[in-house]
Amino acid sequence: MLTKRIIPCLDIKDGRTVKGVNFVQLRDAGDPVELAKAYSDEGADELVFLDITATVDKRKTLAELVTKVAKAINIPFTVGGGISTVEDVKVLLNAGADKISINSSAVKNPGVIDEMAREFGSQCIVVAIDTRDVDGTDYVHTHGGRKPTLLQTQAWAKEVADRGAGEILLTSMDHDGTKAGFANEITSEISSALSIPVIASGGAGNMAHFKDVFTFGKADAALAASIFHFKEVPIPELKSYLDQEGIVIRK
Amino acid sequence: MIEVGRQKIEAINFRLRSSFFRLQTMKIAVIKYNSGNVQSVLYALERLGAHPILTDDPNEIKSADRVIFPGQGEASTAMGYLKARGLDQVIRDIKQPFLGVCLGLQLLCEHSEENDTECLGIFPVKVKKFIPENSQEFKVPHVGWNDLENLKSNPLLKDLPENPFVYYVHSYYAELSDATIATTHYIHYFTAILNRDNYWAIQAHPEKSSEVGEKLLSNFLNI
Lengths: 251, 223
Description:
The complex is a heterodimer.
Chain A: E1 5-13, E2 16-17, H1 32-42, E3 47-51, H2 59-72, E4 77-80, H3 86-95, E5 99-102, H4 104-108, H5 111-120, E6 125-134, E7 137-142, E8 147-152, H6 153-163, E9 167-172, H7 184-193, E10 198-201, H8 207-215, E11 221-224, H9 226-229, H10 235-244
Parallel strand pairs in A: 1-3, 1-11, 3-4, 4-5, 5-6, 6-9, 9-10, 10-11
Antiparallel strand pairs in A: 1-2, 6-7, 7-8
Helix pairs in contact in A: 1-2
Chain B: H1 2-25, E1 28-31, H2 37-47, E2 53-55, H3 58-62, E3 66-69, H4 75-84, H5 87-93, E4 98-101, H6 103-108, E5 111-112, E6 117-118, E7 126-129, E8 142-147, E9 165-170, E10 172-174, E11 180-186, E12 188-196, E13 199-202, H7 210-221
Parallel strand pairs in B: 1-2, 1-3, 3-4, 4-13, 5-7
Antiparallel strand pairs in B: 5-6, 7-10, 8-9, 11-12, 12-13
């Protein structure tokens, strides 16, 4: 049976992990390769690296990092942050990334999704959508959730799927950082409406939240950052909990 | 007793050293193809201590001890690429152990529904598109970790755990056949792994399948 996936997300700036991590066994908590290896050894099903480096010339560091990660780990990983052109994608895939994730650039120029999917195949194109509730309606936001757009989230999700996205990474900005649980309602709505997998993100605070997003939220995968980095929810424990709760996961 | 124990340890050490030496010196050709996962396959082989070469030169491929084709992408384009370089015939003539991965499995079959493509015909098997009965439950592509079932006794599957998980990304699958040595269930059972004579093929990505994938690759190198 196809399993639900558990995905830790690592924020990267200038080739280093940012946001604190609290992994005692790491020699260098800022080294993304070492952290990636630790997660892969713990049983993470996939990894996401989100590059928040501002300057263009420092993005070369990202491709170098991708190569180091690809050499070190034997599970799939996605790279996102600041990707806007087919050439950007080519560089990262050739460096060894399995998938890339685009966000603002897709909003700005939706045709780029078709272009990337045609060139590299849908399987490696993830479209990240940041959503926020505005007076009862869900709107797509950009710039880390600060800037609202006129796109309604459900309609945009359908459009990106039609244009050839292989997966949707759906982050609820209302839930992100709250540790009060994932946005199950909109995740379920989008996952049910589309025939591509949906990765839920934002709001994970405890193990039950993962069970909820897989059952009520109908998510195919769940992503989280700080609760994994600070070992509030260790991946091996999370997996054995989900297994006991009847969720199909990889042991 | 101690002497027997020491002899056993020495025998194990010798086997380890010789298998390491074999990997160091073995000529492994990875068929060059314009797709991202080729690099990942090279890295996975290097993690095992091997020194693969990436090539589309027929002579290099013919003279290798092991040949791996880690295809990805679309079937007719990939077949076109192989034909343009005469590699279709090279693959058909190969006598040494050959491993197709992902699209590499599908191209070893007879025919693929993906753009109605005639494939290499090593395995008398047809490749079809997943048609989900219920798009809420079954999405296409089949992406993620799924388990191998119905494992036959085969050198490629030696010492694997029971129902091991492997990583999949695909929209087309090979039907079940006499050459099927492991199955996976998604919507219905399909062929996870094929073997006939010196040809093996895996639909999943061993290079991304954690320890299980490493075991599959090292088993292939040790065939």
